[in-house]
Amino acid sequence: AKLVARFNVAGLAALTDRPRGHPSLRYGSDQAARILREVRRAPERERDGTATWSLTTLQRALRQAPDGLPQVSTFTLRRILHDAGLSWQENRTWCETGTVLRKRKAGIVEVVDPATAAKRG
């Protein structure tokens, strides 16, 4: 009924999608910095119960910390980590995108892809 009324007023333009509201972001730059500080800290096996961070273990650590975020979701964590240029590596927890350690004859060297920002879009 609403679409028909809109069509009668606007014609074919009524059939195109209209802008919709989005939920406001709950976490700002201070909270994002807190999440990034936590993910860059190596987890303690006894306290955190893990040797590497997953979204769930990171969420648990942030929710239990005195200065943490008691209602943070794994979706929010993934978005903030991705926006910061981190990507999930199954065997290495969260790593900087475009940075990798390579074994060379002279030892282990860090290789940085200069086109990382362009590739991420």
Give your account of this protein's structure.
The longest helix is centred in the first third of the chain and has 12 residues, at 29-40. With 121 residues, the chain is of the alpha+beta class. The protein starts with a helix and ends with a helix. The strands form two sheets. Strands 1-2 form a two-stranded antiparallel sheet. It has helices at 2-10, 29-40, 45-48, 55-64, 74-83, 116-120; strands at residues 86-89, 93-96, 99-104, 107-112. It has six helices and four strands; from the N terminus they run αααααββββα. The mean pLDDT is 86. The radius of gyration is 22 Å and the shape is flat. A hairpin with a 2-residue loop joins β3 and β4 (107-112). The chain has one domain (25-120).
Strand content: 15-25%
**What is the helix/strand order?**
HHHHHEEEEH
Q: Which structural class do the helices and strands define?
A: alpha+beta
Q: Work out the count of structural domains.
A: 1
Average pLDDT reading: 86
Q: Tell me the strand order in the biggest sheet.
A: 1-2
Q: How many helix segments? A: 6
How much helix is in the residues? 40-55%
Output the radius of gyration: 22 Å
Number of beta-strand segments = 4
Shape: flat
- Low-pLDDT residue spans: none
- Describe the main β-sheet briefly: 2 strands, antiparallel
Distance between the termini: 41 Å
